[in-house]
Amino acid sequence: MGLFTSKKFETLDELLAAQIKDLYDAEHRLTEALPKMAKTAKNPELRTAFNNHLKETESQINRLEKVFSSLGVEPERESCDAMKGLISEGEEFIDADGDPDVIDAGLIAAAQRVEHYEIAGYGSARALAKQLGKQQAVSLLQETLDEEGAADKKLTEIAESYVNTAAGQA
Ligand code: FE
Ligand code: ZN
Ligand code: FE
Ligand code: FE
């Protein structure tokens, strides 16, 4: 959501459409960032997790297109400044020199920020859709919300089982 653009919001329908456009942009940006994160990751499990989540992210874009169509709104990206910032924080690790285990731990920290941001975004959108009685949108948003939660949990598991330990011993 742009911070300095002044807009007019009269109805929750308009707000929901704007939120979906923001998520649509955020997911597109992630399809560009995740391959770079996967390539940087040293731990094979982490690399696989990024690659799997890339495939999920592509299907989340399709799912958002179904949400647009269920709401009768034209699919359109509205620049997500927050995701831009989260990705640029992740890129610090992509360009970094140093211990690969420490860099993996940094990639996980950045990726978990992204997942939590998405969880907040989808949770709010789902709540608005529910309020508006848009049941199909609720179900679609819930599916993605579940995937984002699972992706976050997977990253925690990887961090706890390998990366943080390895980096701590470096
Ligand atoms: Fe996503
Ligand atoms: Zn945003
Ligand atoms: Fe902060
Ligand atoms: Fe995600």
What does the model show?
The protein is elongated, with a radius of gyration of 17 Å. With 170 residues, it is mainly alpha-helical. It contains five helices and no strands. The chain has helices at 12-40, 44-71, 81-94, 100-131, 135-169. The protein has a single domain, classed as Up-down Bundle (Ferritin), CATH 1.20.1260.10. Bound molecules: fe (iii) ion (3 copies) and zinc ion.
Helices and strands, with pairings:
Blueprint lengths: L11 H29 L3 H28 L9 H14 L5 H32 L3 H35 L1
Helix pairs in contact: 1-2, 1-3, 1-4, 2-5, 3-4, 4-5
Bound molecules: fe (iii) ion (3 copies) and zinc ion.
Task: Give a quick rundown of the structure.
81% of the residues lie in helices and 0% in strands.
